[in-house]
């Protein structure tokens, strides 16, 4: 090996990785329609349980989705998880399938599931989790209105 050959093995590392788990979060917004109804129950039960959200002709929400991944920053990049990659995964798995769609009719992975915020965060988790290859998926939080949101952390989770 010549002195002019700067092979990585011959260089002293100049970066100093830090240890510790860090939570990183990506936030996206999308719009979707739904109707809360349990087709196995009578109409009066559905109206009583879901009220306005049982409206036959659907209604929509401006959803805010926050996806958090936890792990140690990579020693080479300093990233727990590249948030650009996380943005792409969320777009491919959730936004492209749900934005301006109807959860009851248009979204394959919601077939047969009552599209409450609670069920949506579990379904979104199931879509996203296999794509998280560094660190681990920590939480999926979905805000349906200014006042109402749901969060899932996988399994028992809390
Ligand atoms: Zn609603």
User: What is the end-to-end distance?
Assistant: 56 Å
Based on helices, strands and strand pairing, what is the structural class?
Answer: alpha+beta
CATH topology: Tetrahydropterin Synthase, Chain A
Would you tell me the overall average pLDDT?
93
Output the radius of gyration.
Answer: 21 Å
Q: Which H/E pattern describes the elements? A: EHEHEHEE
Number of strands: 5
| Largest sheet properties | 5 strands, mixed
Strand order of the largest sheet: 3-1-2-4-5
Number of helices: 3
Helix content: 10-25%
Which ranges are low-confidence, i.e. pLDDT below 50, for 5 or more consecutive residues? none
- The CATH superfamily bears the name 6-pyruvoyl tetrahydropterin synthase/QueD
Query: Architecture, CATH level 2?
Result: 2-Layer Sandwich
Number of self-contained structural domains: 1
CATH class: Alpha Beta
Bound molecules: zinc ion
Strand content: 25-35%
Shape: elongated
């Amino acid at each position: 090996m010549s002195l002019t050959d700067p092979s990585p093995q011959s260089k002293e590392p100049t970066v100093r990785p830090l240890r510790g788990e860090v939570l990183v979060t990506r936030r996206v917004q999308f719009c979707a329609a739904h109707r809360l109804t349990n087709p196995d129950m009578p109409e009066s039960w559905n109206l009583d349980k879901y009220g306005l959200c049982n409206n036959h002709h659907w209604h929509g929400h401006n959803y805010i989705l926050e996806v958090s991944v936890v792990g140690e920053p990579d020693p080479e990049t300093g990233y727990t998880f590249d948030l650009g990659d996380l943005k792409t995964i969320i777009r491919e798995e959730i936004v492209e399938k749900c934005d301006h769609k109807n959860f009851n009719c248009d979204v394959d992975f919601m077939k047969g599931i009552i599209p409450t915020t609670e069920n949506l965060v579990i379904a979104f988790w199931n879509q996203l989790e296999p794509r998280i290859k560094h660190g681990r998926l920590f939480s999926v939080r979905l805000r349906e209105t200014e006042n109402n949101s749901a969060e899932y952390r996988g399994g028992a989770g809390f």
